[in-house]
Design goal:
Helix content is 70%, strand content 1%. With 595 residues, it is mainly α. Helix 7 runs parallel beside helix 22. It is globular, with a radius of gyration of 25 Å.
């Protein structure tokens, strides 16, 4: 059986499972559509939240960014996992206790203002739509490779699949679909990692293999990788290269952005009790750790495999020849990925070989000139393909490659569905039902939720055609927007009685607008269909990039909110009582009085 047929079987079987589950658990009411009827078991919800959380950025893109940058991109690991701990401890139980369907509804009620709810909807839509771009980007890449078509058509097919099960299933259908998707994605991620760790180090646990000895050379694996990449003019893999300030701000932006993500927060509204929300958070951390402890090993081992493949006899010998790429089955993966437009090479100097090295490095300039090289001839290697191509690069069995295809799509589709639910809930429940047509019937609201989700898919596809970076980088922008707008409002809403409606509204708008302006100026974010119009200009504030600005936007949000609240009318007493009831466990006051 050829590889294409194997891929179709794995992907087709997984899609049949997802759509079958969505039909079985189809939402029949707004409560089931928004919160799965609040009847999801904590372990089930933990698994679904992990799938919702571990998106295309985690599965497809993160290891690729770590592989090609090294230590600096460990910020993704630290920021995302640390942020989830923050969300689990500081926000999730309190928001579940409040008992609403959406984040915007909480903000509207806590800050006693329809305008605050509307501003929260705007913030939510901006962050969620930016986030879903990265997911659709991952869907297009995965479909494009494994159906051997252009990534554009892969994106179109993926959008149709998301529509088929998310629009009709709602939160109830998506919850149980995400449980299945978690099982698929974690299996697909860990099995190839185990194979490759055994190949390179003889150790079956990738996280341990990362710090073990390379079997071929007898050197520690990371030491060998450092030597190879520096020989090719790249920076040392295990060393920090960039600005420490930018790295700290980037990690902080990911952390607080995580705690402000509406599609993840919504998952804690689906459990029966507040205590279940805490247990869900604990189980989610367990399920997330299985992938995040493996990702650094996947990145490092993949980088080593690619380098060994391009310089098969070591970096002091000749590079791989064009004839070898065309005739050796080990290199079939390059021809296949070339069809997607995400991998390309060119024999610039006509020597019959493909030189892969850092052509911008001063250290390589003299060597390249002496050898007659005319630049890095691996002219395009989209980092988002690395995890999906890794089993092929390592020459693993066909069924492993098919499994990875299904896993990559599961990761992208599970998060895309969660984001689309957050978007549709914001439009139908918070905007239409909460603001424009409060007398809307439940049947009409359910229809509006499905139509708004369909519209969101169309918008996500259009923007996904021209993303502002690799999938994980695009997602990082969404985290920054959530950090600057939603997270401060939630924190102040729960832990501060002083912040009134004027302060909350001014803070959210200030954080959102300042962060958006910085991103636009830094990224050159102007959408031109069919072109790659996104560029990184020089940062406006020293070394601080657009992906790191969310932490500064959050600080502006907090500062403006407290300043405006101090200058305007005090929070009403009933709202202060509401905040107290959310924060203090039921019966705690009576227990304290007894002592």
């Amino acid at each position: 059986m050829d590889q294409f047929t194997i891929n179709l079987l794995f992907v087709g079987a997984s899609f049949a499972l997802y759509i079958g589950i969505a039909i079985w658990a189809r939402a029949g009411s707004t409560s089931e559509f928004y919160a799965a009827g609040r009847g999801v078991h904590p372990v089930t919800n933990g698994m679904a939240t992990a799938a919702d959380w571990m998106s295309a950025a985690s599965f497809i893109s993160m290891a690729g960014l770590i592989a090609f940058t090294g230590y600096d991109n460990s910020s993704f690991l630290m920021g995302w996992t640390g942020g989830y701990v923050l969300l689990a401890l500081m926000l999730a139980p309190y928001l579940r206790k409040f008992g609403k369907f959406t984040v915007s509804e909480f903000i509207g009620d806590r800050f006693y203002s329809p305008l605050a709810r509307l501003v929260a909807v705007i913030c939510l839509l901006v962050a969620s739509i930016t986030y879903v771009i990265g997911q659709m980007q991952g869907v297009g890449i995965a479909f494009g490779r494994f159906l051997e078509i252009d990534a554009f058509w892969g994106l179109m097919i993926g959008a149709c699949v998301v529509f088929a099960y998310a629009v009709f299933g709602g939160m109830k259908g998506v919850t149980y679909t995400q449980v299945a998707q978690y099982c698929v994605l974690i299996t697909a991620y860990t099995i190839p990692a185990i194979f490759i760790s055994l190949q390179l180090t003889g150790t079956p646990i990738p996280a341990i293999g990362l710090f073990s000895t390379d079997v071929a050379s007898g050197e520690p694996l990371l030491q060998k990788l450092d030597q190879i990449v520096t020989d090719l003019g790249f920076k040392e893999y295990t060393a920090a290269h960039g600005s420490t300030i930018n790295m700290v701000l980037f990690t902080l932006s990911l952390m607080i952005g995580t705690a402000g993500l509406p599609h993840v927060i919504m998952r804690f509204f689906t459990v029966p009790k507040v205590s279940d929300a805490r247990w869900s958070a604990g189980w989610t951390l367990v399920f997330i750790a299985l992938l995040y402890l493996t990702a650094p090993a996947v990145g490092a081992m993949a980088r080593l495999n690619i380098t060994d493949m391009m310089w098969p006899n070591g970096t002091d010998a000749e590079a791989v020849s064009v004839e070898t790429i065309e005739t050796d089955p080990r290199y079939d993966w390059m021809a296949t990925w070339q069809k997607t437009g995400l991998l390309a090479w060119e024999d610039k100097n006509g020597d019959g070989k493909i030189q892969y090295y850092n052509d911008k490095s001063d250290a390589m300039a003299e060597r390249a000139a002496a050898a007659g090289w005319e630049g890095n001839e691996l002219t395009k290697f989209n980092r988002d393909i690395l995890v999906l191509a890794n089993p092929e690069i390592a020459n693993l069995p066909g069924w492993v490659i098919g499994l990875v295809a299904a896993g990559g799509l599961a990761a992208a589709l599970s998060t895309a569905a969660g984001l689309l639910l957050a978007i549709s809930s914001a439009v139908s429940h918070d905007l239409l039902k909460g603001q424009l047509t409060p007398n809307m019937s439940e049947k009409t609201e359910l229809m509006a939720a499905r139509l708004s989700m369909a519209a969101a898919i169309v918008v996500a596809v259009l923007l996904g055609l021209n993303p502002p970076g690799f999938a994980a980088q695009t997602v990082a922008l969404a985290f920054g927007l959530a950090a600057a707008s939603i997270f401060p409002a939630l924190m102040m809403g729960i832990f501060s009685k002083k912040i009134n409606n004027s302060g909350a509204i001014a803070g959210m708008l200030a954080g959102l607008v300042v962060t958006l302006v910085y991103i636009f100026l830094h990224k050159g974010w102007f959408f031109i269909p069919g072109t790659n119009s996104f560029t990184d200009a020089d940062p406006l504030l020293g070394p601080i990039k657009s992906t790191s600005f969310g932490a500064i936007g959050a600080a502006i949000n907090f500062g403006v909110a407290y300043l405006v609240a101090g200058m305007t009318k005090e929070t009403p007493q009933e709202i202060k009582d509401l905040v107290e009831s959310v924060r203090v466990p039921r019966g705690a006051g009576a227990a304290a009085a007894d002592h």
